[in-house]
Amino acid sequence: MSSEEFEKLHEIYRSLYEELKLMPERALKCHGEERKKLVRSFDERQGEAEEMLQGMEDELRAAPSSYRSAMSTKLRMYRRDLGKLQRDIKLSAPGFGSSYQPVEGSHHGLYSSENQHSTHLQSQRALLLQGTESLNNASQSIERSQRIAAETEHIGTDIIEELGEQREQLDRTRNRLVNTGENLSRSRKVLRAMSRRLVTNKLLLGVIILMELAILGAVIYLKFFRG
C-alpha cells in the first residue's frame, strides 16, 4: 500500500467533509435557486467524498491486516457520517432532497443533468492528484540531486584538502632537499679546503726535508772534505 497516496486521499476527504457538514445548516437559511444550488453543490461534494473513500478502500486492500482492520472501522464511520449529512440535507431542504446513492464503480448525482459536470470536476480532481504526485516525484528527484551534489561537493572538498596536505608535504620535502643541497655544498667546500691544506702541508714538508738534507750535506762536506 502506498501510505503517501492513502494520506493524500484522506486529507482530501477531510477537506470535503468539513465543507459538507456546514451545508445542512446553510440550507435552512436560504430559499429557491440559492437552496437548489446549495443542494447541487452538496451532491457533487458528496460524490467526490465517496470517490475518496473508495480510493482509500482500494489502497487498504494491500495494507497489513492490523492496519487494514483499524482503518476499515474508520472508513465505515466516515460513510456513516456521510449518510447522516445526507439525511440532514433532506430535512433542511425537503423540496430538493438528495437522491445520491453510491454504487461501486460509479456515483449518481441528485440531478441527472449535472452528471457530466460532476464527472468533469472529478476528472479535474484526479488530474490534480496526478499533478500533485508528479510534483512530489519531481521534488524527491530534486532532493536526491541536491543530496548527490552535496555529497559530491563534500568529496571534492576532501580531495582538495588532501591535495593541500600533499602539497605541504612536498614543500617540506623540497625545503629539506634544498637544505641538504646547501649542506652538501658546504661539505664540498670544506673538503676542497682540507685538500688544499693537505697539498700545502705536503709541499712544506717536502721543502723542509730538502732543506734538512741540504744542511746535512753541508755539514758532512765541511767536516770530512774541508777538514
- The CA-CA distance between the termini, in Å, is 140 Å
Helix content: over 70%
Secondary structural class: mainly alpha
SSE topology string: HHHHEEH
Give the neighbour order of strands across the main sheet: 1-2
Give the overall shape, derived from the CA principal axes: rod-shaped
Strand content: under 5%
Number of separate helices: 5
The mean pLDDT is: 79
What is the total tally of β strands?
Answer: 2
Q: Residue ranges: pLDDT <50 for 5 or more in a row?
A: 96-116
What is the radius of gyration? Answer: 52 Å
Major β-sheet profile:
2 strands, antiparallel
Describe the protein.
The longest helix has 111 residues, at 115-225. The termini are far apart. 85% of the residues lie in helices and 3% in strands. A two-stranded antiparallel sheet has the order 1-2. The chain is rod-shaped and about 175 Å long. It contains 5 helices and 2 strands; from the N terminus they run H-H-H-H-E-E-H. The model is unreliable at 96-116 (pLDDT under 50). Helix 3 (32-60) runs antiparallel to helix 4. It has 227 residues and is mainly α.
Could you give a short description of this structure?
The protein contains five helices and two strands. The protein has helices at 3-20, 23-28, 32-60, 65-92, 115-225; strands at 101-103, 106-108.
